[in-house]
Every structure is written in structure tokens, then in C-alpha cells.
């Protein structure tokens, strides 16, 4: 492991030499700067672990140097210890307010300075270990997710291909009966369409960049989402819409938004079970809410009166290929919907409905946030 590196900044060379001699005896690398501008020039190239910074310097004082370091992402995390002759409480508070982590008053006690430096270096080492641990945990999570998705894809595609081959065998065996051939060909087409849908959903999951968004009427977004749900899944039963917000503008990506609504609606419809008879009521309601960070958002609740959330999937319903359904080739809808909405800055949760059934709660910000850095999303929530 390389020895820690400290930048000492002081306009008095004798002070720099005293600190350098003391720190180097402890195996610490020391680089020196005699002006604030020299320090700012050295930091990007040297990347010190810690900065000892004199406050009172000509041209650019330590306060301004620290403020400039705080303005840049690459230098903001470098801890700064101020060194100054000013010992008042107000001076110390001022230094801490601009980003310093500690304060040493002159005349310098070298042993005390060494102890404070070593304490901050331990904090730096702990922080780096935590960052490395988070990185490794994220890599492990991604690897586990890839494994789960790969297994799910193989299972679903094998089942669907088995269905296709089975119906093809039936077509071959009864090729002289047109009606029989037509019926089984439709089953083959449905199975192939399920395969296409899985591939399409996987393509959606790997999109990382935030899509372009424009403002649209909330009422139209909901109605178009309902239309997509009815057309894509050939469902004629109406959906009740109670939207007191009317044409409230929402900044979003229309196609993604509609697809999310359609997926949540088919999930609600299927919650009644494939053998259900009679009507399957589904209701959509809206209201304005605040998201974390005081972001104003629209909340869309999609409510059904189906079988509710099964206990065995309550904690895993948003994971790939987890499903309450008994058919083959399913289990990606909620995963894709949540990922897509998070990429738009929103969130999806599913909760129990009082009296039976469930409620999908879709929260979408009214306007996108302005970010300084590009936004990317991991493939899975």
C-alpha cells in the first residue's frame, strides 16, 4: 500500500519545512505550495489525500482556496485542515463553513498536528474502503441479477419453444384438417409473440440514457395508456378514470409512459385470475403529491379487486421473472415498468387494497430535474 500524500500550503517556507520534516519522519509524502494559486494548480495533478492550508496568505487566502476546491467534484472530497493564528470561535466556524474538516492554531504544536493529520488520514482510508465495498456489492448484485435473468430467460424461452414445437407437431399430424391447422397455427403465433415480447422487454431494460421528454396532457396520457392496454391485449372491458387534475401538463416520454400504464393495467386485469367470470373492475385515480426533494409530482393509482398480493412474492414482485401467473413466458412486466419509470425520475410501488385486491401507485414528477451530470440507471432496480 502506497504511503499517504499531503499537500502543505503556506507562504512562509520555514513553516512548510518544519511540517514536512515532521510528517516525512512518519512515512508521509509531502508536497509544498507557497501560494493559493500554486495549491489549486498542484491538486489535480498530485491528488493529495489531505491538505494542510494556511488561512492568511497574500493574493488568495485559504478561505478562497477551500471554496474553490469545494466547487469541483474531483477535489471536493479532499479533507482540508486550516492552519491560522486566528483562534476566535467565529474564525473557526467560518473555516468549517467553507468546507474545512479541522482547525489548527499557531504557533503549531507539531505533535498535535501529526495526531490530527493521522486521524483525518484514517477517516480517508475508511471512506475509501466503504466506497470499494459499495462497488464490490454493486458488482455482486449485478452478477446475481444477470444470473437470475439468464436463468429466467432460458426457462421461459424453453417453455415457449416447447409450446411451438408441440403445436407444430399437431399441425403436421392433422394437416388435412384446415380448421384444426388454423386453430393450432394461432397458438403457435401467440407463443412466438410471447418470445418477441421477452426480447423487447430485455431491450428496454438495457437502455441507460434518460430519454427525451416533452410536456403532455395528463388526461391524454392516461387515456392513451388505457387504449394501448386494450388494443395490445385485446381487452374490451372499460377502465374507470377519475382524474380531477384534467389536462395538467406532465413532462415525460409519451411512449414509455403509455407502455408503463398498459403493463400495470394488464397486471391488474390478470390479478382476477384466468378462470374469473364476470366483470374485472379496474379504476384509475390521480392526485398531486411531493416526492423526496420537494419535487412536485402526479400520483396515479391503478386499483383492482383481484386476488391481491401473494405472500410468497410480496418482497420480490419487482424482480425479473417473478410472477403470480401460471402461464409460460411471463414475469417481466413489473420489472420493466419500474425500471422505465425510474429512468423518467419516478417510482412504482404495489400495495394492498383495503377490502381486497391491490393498488399500483405510479409517481411521476411534473417536470424533469436539471442535472449537472448525465443520468444513468442500472439495468435492474
Automatic annotation (TrEMBL):
Its EC number is 2.7.13.3. InterPro entries: CheY-like_superfamily, HATPase_C_sf, HATPase_dom, His_kinase_dom, HisK_dim/P_dom, HisK_dim/P_sf, Sig_transdc_His_kin-like_C, Sig_transdc_resp-reg_receiver. It comes from the Bacteria. Residues 5-121 form the Response regulatory domain. It comes from Nibricoccus aquaticus. It catalyses: ATP + protein L-histidine = ADP + protein N-phospho-L-histidine. This is histidine kinase. PROSITE patterns: HIS_KIN, RESPONSE_REGULATORY. Residues 152-368 form the Histidine kinase domain. The keyword DNA-binding applies. Keywords: DNA-binding, Kinase, Phosphoprotein, Transcription, Transcription regulation, Transferase, Two-component regulatory system. One of its GO terms (molecular function) is DNA binding. The modification 4-aspartylphosphate is found at residue 54.
Amino acid at each position: 500500500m502506497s504511503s499517504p500524500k499531503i499537500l502543505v500550503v503556506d507562504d512562509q517556507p520555514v513553516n512548510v519545512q518544519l511540517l514536512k520534516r515532521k510528517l516525512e519522519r512518519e512515512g508521509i509524502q509531502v508536497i509544498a505550495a507557497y501560494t493559493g494559486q500554486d495549491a489549486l494548480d498542484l491538486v489535480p495533478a498530485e491528488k493529495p489525500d489531505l491538505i494542510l492550508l494556511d488561512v492568511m496568505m497574500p493574493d488568495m487566502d485559504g478561505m478562497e482556496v477551500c471554496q474553490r476546491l469545494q466547487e469541483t467534484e474531483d477535489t471536493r472530497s479532499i479533507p482540508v485542515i486550516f492552519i491560522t493564528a486566528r483562534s476566535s470561535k467565529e474564525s473557526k466556524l467560518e473555516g468549517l463553513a467553507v468546507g474545512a474538516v479541522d482547525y489548527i492554531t499557531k504557533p503549531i504544536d507539531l505533535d498535535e498536528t501529526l495526531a490530527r493529520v493521522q486521524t483525518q488520514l484514517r477517516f480517508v482510508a475508511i471512506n475509501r474502503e466503504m466506497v470499494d465495498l459499495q462497488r464490490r456489492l454493486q458488482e455482486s448484485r449485478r452478477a446475481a441479477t444477470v444470473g437470475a435473468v439468464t436463468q429466467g430467460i432460458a426457462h421461459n424461452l424453453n417453455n415457449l419453444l416447447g409450446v411451438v414445437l408441440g403445436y407444430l407437431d399437431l399441425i403436421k399430424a392433422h394437416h388435412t384438417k384446415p380448421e384444426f391447422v388454423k386453430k393450432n397455427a394461432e397458438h403457435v403465433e401467440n407463443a412466438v409473440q410471447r418470445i418477441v415480447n421477452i426480447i423487447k422487454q430485455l431491450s428496454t431494460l438495457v437502455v441507460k440514457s434518460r430519454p427525451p421528454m416533452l410536456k403532455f396532457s395528463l388526461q391524454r396520457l392516461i387515456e392513451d395508456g388505457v387504449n394501448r392496454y386494450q388494443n395490445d391485449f385485446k381487452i374490451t372491458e372499460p377502465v374507470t378514470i377519475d382524474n380531477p387534475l384534467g389536462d395538467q401538463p406532465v413532462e415525460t416520454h409519451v411512449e414509455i409512459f403509455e407502455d408503463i400504464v398498459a403493463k400495470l393495467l394488464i397486471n391488474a386485469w390478470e390479478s382476477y385470475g384466468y378462470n374469473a367470470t364476470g366483470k374485472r373492475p379496474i379504476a384509475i385515480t390521480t392526485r398531486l403529491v411531493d416526492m423526496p426533494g420537494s419535487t412536485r409530482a402526479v400520483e396515479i393509482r391503478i386499483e383492482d379487486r383481484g386476488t391481491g398480493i401473494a405472500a410468497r412474492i410480496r418482497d420480490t414482485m419487482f424482480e425479473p421473472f417473478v410472477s403470480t401467473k401460471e402461464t409460460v413466458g411471463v414475469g417481466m412486466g413489473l420489472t420493466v415498468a419500474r425500471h422505465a419509470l425510474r429512468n423518467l425520475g419516478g417510482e412504482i410501488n404495489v400495495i394492498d387494497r383495503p377490502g381486497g385486491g391491490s393498488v399500483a401507485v405510479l409517481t411521476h414528477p411534473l417536470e424533469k430535474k436539471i442535472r449537472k451530470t448525465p443520468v444513468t440507471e442500472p439495468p435492474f432496480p
